[in-house]
Design brief:
By secondary structure, the protein is α+β, with helices and mostly antiparallel strands. The chain contains seven helices and six strands, in the order ααβααβββαββαα. It is globular.
Length: 171
């Protein structure tokens, strides 16, 4: 085997794993996060969209785990893309935002929304009405069901637990 052939094989062996890792990293990208301003525009364009506030903090390990494991899940990302405006709400931030016509700091908004821990999932209508709220880690499969329930009219008729139970019965 010539020196050029050996070099070409070594180069190929070295590059294939990094190309594969790049594809895996691309496939595991997180959902599309919006600013409060772009979410407001999104809700004005499509009033049926739901505002999903993910209340988190830089120091919150569970929040980071959700970003890494849940918001990168293919089904979760598709559902978020279809029906939600996803916004991060940093519960410690003093940054001023406009929220449904009211200027306030993010941490003040978290207080007004009664966020008592992180992560907290807050779902609001395009008018700012609370649709659902919960705290803690949510596995990707359960998050997909939660997003489906929140985005549907079903939430007006049945509880989330009943919705999940009915879904499991369909299988």
């Amino acid at each position: 085997m010539s020196m050029k052939t050996r070099f070409a094989i070594m180069l190929l062996v070295a590059l294939v794993p990094s190309a594969t890792l790049g594809q895996e990293a691309h496939a595991r990208q997180s959902a599309s996060w919006q600013t409060f301003e772009s979410a407001r525009e999104s809700l004005q364009e499509d009033p049926e969209r739901v505002l999903f506030l993910f209340a988190e903090a830089d120091w919150c390990a569970i929040c980071k785990r959700m970003r890494r494991e849940v918001f990168t899940d293919h089904v979760v990302k598709e559902r978020l893309q279809a029906d939600f405006a996803l916004v991060s709400l940093d519960v410690d931030s003093r940054e001023e935002i406009e929220f449904f016509g009211k200027a306030l700091a993010k941490r003040k908004l978290a207080y007004q929304l009664d966020v008592r821990g992180t992560p907290t999932l807050i779902f609001l209508s395009g008018d700012g009405d609370l649709l659902a709220m919960g705290a803690g880690f949510v596995e990707p499969a359960r998050m997909a069901l939660l997003l489906e329930w929140v985005a549907s009219d079903t939430r007006h008729r049945v509880s989330f637990d009943t919705f999940v139970r009915d879904r499991k019965g369909e299988r």
